[in-house]
Write a structure and sequence with these properties.
- It is a single chain.
- Helix 1 crosses helix 9.
- The chain starts with 20 loop residues before the first strand and ends in a 10-residue tail after the last strand.
- 41% of the residues lie in helices and 12% in strands.
- The chain has a single domain, classed as Rossmann fold (3-Layer(aba) Sandwich), CATH 3.40.50.720.
- It is an alpha/beta fold and 263 residues long.
- The protein is built from 9 helices and 7 strands; from the N terminus they run E-H-E-H-E-H-E-H-E-H-H-E-H-H-H-E.
- One of its GO terms (molecular function) is glucose 1-dehydrogenase [NAD(P)+] activity.
């Protein structure tokens, strides 16, 4: 990608996640990588899960090691219950517990015409973007204690849609509803469930999803006039993962460049 996305944390760590263990899906690149590196800087044990981008995952692990974190990388299809369970169990086995779950893995495929969206694509998108987070949460709950945090990465498209990403928008709307339902369900257990809804963020998913003519204008329609960087979303993840947000559940943060959306 040119320019390269900015993954590096902006500030020195302050041990806000010291002694905590986090599992981040889609942690090999983009928002997931920036979150993994920031969590590592803040003292967490971090496991990343990814599909098959081995080189990207190794880069993320190296960045985490630079922060003093000997992280764990796991790969497979997070859209299956078996793999979601394995990811959780391997994380717990390695680090002795689980405190933070970040459901970040996502797929999107631009299609101009709704009638052209193949059934296979719809099912694949829902598997990764919605069923994966559901399965991860199901597998994680037996290990989560009061004070734990679940963070779901939804999207601005959950609030205003996106003409080229109809199926993707549908999954992100469902994930938003899942966040709200889970937050109510798990509140009595002291487990917080929140969401982050990024707008136009410059990640590898963008050039892989959109035609060339769209890339030159990507993000320029936001009130701030530019696309965001992964490290500008990672700070939202940190806030929701640590005790700074101890009185927040069922909420959504909006790093989207100023796009005013309801909810």
């Amino acid at each position: 990608m040119s320019p390269e996305p900015d993954y590096q944390p902006r500030y020195p760590g302050s041990d806000r996640l010291k002694g905590k263990t986090a599992l981040i899906t889609g942690g090999d690149s983009g928002i997931g990588r920036a979150t993994a590196v920031l969590f590592a800087r803040e003292g967490a044990n971090v496991a990343i899960h990814y599909k098959d981008e081995h080189e990207d995952a190794e880069t993320t692990l190296a960045l985490m090691r630079d922060e003093g974190c000997d992280g764990l990388a796991l790969n497979g299809d997070i859209g299956t219950k078996q793999e979601a369970k394995r990811a959780v169990e391997e994380t717990v086995k390695r680090f002795g517990g689980l405190d933070i779950v970040v459901n970040n893995a996502g797929e999107q495929y631009a299609q101009s015409n709704v009638t052209d969206i193949p059934e296979e694509q719809i099912r694949r998108t829902f598997d990764t973007n919605l069923f994966g987070p559901f399965f991860v949460v199901q597998s994680a709950l037996p290990h989560l204690k009061a004070g734990a945090s679940i963070i779901n990465v939804t999207s601005v498209t959950a609030f205003r849609g996106q003409d080229l990403l109809v199926d993707y928008s549908a999954t992100k709307g469902a994930l938003l509803s899942l966040t709200r339902a889970l937050s109510s369900k798990l509140a009595e257990d002291g487990i917080r469930v929140n969401a982050v809804a990024p707008g136009p963020i410059w990640t590898p998913l963008i050039p892989a999803s959109f035609p060339e003519e769209k890339l030159a204008k990507f993000g320029k329609g936001s009130p701030l006039g530019r696309a965001g960087q992964p490290n500008e979303v990672a700070s939202c993840m940190l806030f929701l993962a640590c005790e700074d947000s101890s009185f927040m559940t069922g909420q959504t943060l909006h790093p989207n460049g100023g796009d005013l959306v309801g909810g």
